[in-house]
Amino acid sequence: MLMMVSLIRRSRRGFLIRFGQYAGLFALCLTLAVSCRGGGGSQTVADLGTGDRVSIGTTLSAGSLDPADAYETFPGILLYNLGDRLYTYTPGTTDLVPQLATALPTISADGLTYSIPLRDDVTLHDGTPFDAEVMAFSLKRFIENGGRPADLLSSKVEEVSAASPTELVIQLKAPVASFTSLLTFSGLTPISPQEYEIGPGNFKPSVFIGSGPYKLSEYSSSVIRLDANEDYWGEKPANDGIDIQIFTSAANLYNSFVSGSLDVAYQTLDPDQISKLEADAASNNWTVIEAGATVVDYLALNQKIAPFDNLNARKAVAAMMDRPLIVSRAFKDQADPLYSLIPASFSEVYEPVFKASYGDGNYDEAKKYLTAAGFSESKPMAFEIWYPSSSTPRSIAAQTIKQSIEQKLPGLVTVTVNTAESATLWGNVADGVYPSVLSNWYADYFDPENFVQPFLSCETGSEATLCESGESQSGGSFYYSDKANELIAQQNAESDPAKRNEIFKQLQELMAEDVPYIPLWQTKDYVFTTANVSAVAIQPNQQLLMWQIEK
């Protein structure tokens, strides 16, 4: 995930895309030395990472640490290390295992009731014993306080209760096949009823009192410190604590790492800085950790307005996209072409449907679709691309798209590239202001459903009126399909993995047929470490397990 600052997930109600991605001075300094960026120094706090404490540098902002309101990248990582969840993944795998639960849930025959047995040997940071009442309180607060991620549960959960001190019962509104995976979301962690309250908008952004391997000891806009929890019930941290410095620019992060002031540099650096660190790694005894990410970048096409109210116009744009060219120019190949909104990391499900249907830079096919849509040199198609002004790689991607199309289809298509400040842009998307927007999606939990339902489902609308209220409306495509809604409901009710995968295949094929979105690229994730530390790894669910890091 390249050069991202203050990343905010797109909520499942409203279009709160993680914004500010790729902010920096990359475009201004492309031809200059890497160290010139921002003109800043190392911006290092001297006492970070002393002894057996690990120092980590990032440009991501902290945001809120309240589990009921935190919906950014970095707070999610912090909560994953400060707290526990009912279920988690075996490190290095996607194998779902109990954490605060003692077994996978018992699910009723109708798929609506989840009975979850709980551990009885867990104590929260303030000494409160963990039990089903504590967990029920935490989940109810997540729903009722109405924070940004609240809809993850409120749209699905009817009731949460404690059947006994060691048994939690969750009643769903409708079957959700991915619900156990959803329970791994970083914000679904127990918190102390002694320190938190239930009430709309009642949040505590700068504290955390939970049950995890670290306790929060310092929280500010520039430094965050996590101390090892000596009383932790599970695997004790391999270090004495984590000291995190938040940098104001990628330049400062880069310079601090190369000067030896940091043990770990993680999110985010510009593509050329990453290339430079990779080239210099061996001579400096640095370790470069590269991992595939589940972040998908795509073009959302607004079917409410011209020209994308015409299916052939949408297909024409799909055929025009040259993903390898975009990846090469905008990301120095630190990303991969993507041909479905389900990431390639879901190997049993991923179908490269857009490659099969449209290819890359298939301009002859695009001409056929343009003709069918009624466009010609005397009546060219006007293609507007919008993106957040802070996003440098998306700027390069948009310009690459513009140049390649206008070079290959002169007179047939005119491409206009526009920007808006992030909050303004995403605020206008759900109102249908823009014909197309370069967007990205960070999944809330590791399941293919989370890459389909947020894009193709719609609660209110019709194929004639399009989506009036629901996920595709908030996502800016306004797509409505009875078939898509039916398939999404079917996969939620399907317990057989093979049959569920077949439904996902149908949904991907439907997306290629109707073209409400065009998948473009999938970014890679990078961590750089010095010889001082080991056991650093990016997990398949994109988490960084800080308690495993040894120094």
Biggest sheet, open or closed, and with what strands and sense? 9 strands, mixed
Number of helices: 16
CATH class of the domain at 294-524: Alpha Beta
Global geometry: globular
What does this structure look like?
There is one protein chain. This protein is α+β, with helices and mostly antiparallel strands and 551 residues long. Among the domains are: 84-208, Dipeptide-binding Protein, domain 1, CATH 3.90.76; 294-524, Dipeptide-binding Protein, Domain 3 (Dipeptide-binding Protein, domain 3). Helix content is 28%, strand content 21%. The protein is built from 16 helices and 19 strands. It has helices at residues 73-82, 132-144, 151-154, 179-182, 250-258, 271-284, 311-320, 323-331, 353-358, 363-372, 392-408, 422-429, 453-456, 471-474, 482-493, 497-514; strands spanning 53-58, 87-89, 96-98, 106-107, 113-117, 157-164, 167-172, 214-219, 223-228, 241-246, 264-266, 287-301, 335-337, 381-388, 413-420, 436-441, 460-462, 466-469, 517-529. Strands 1, 8, 9, 10, 11, 12, 13, 16 and 19 form a 9-stranded mixed beta sheet that branches. A 4-stranded antiparallel beta sheet has the order 4-5-7-6, with helices on one face. A two-stranded antiparallel sheet has the order 2-3. Helix 7 runs antiparallel to helix 10 (363-372), helix 8 (323-331) crosses helix 11 and helix 15 packs antiparallel against helix 16 (497-514). Residues 1-42 have low confidence and may be disordered.
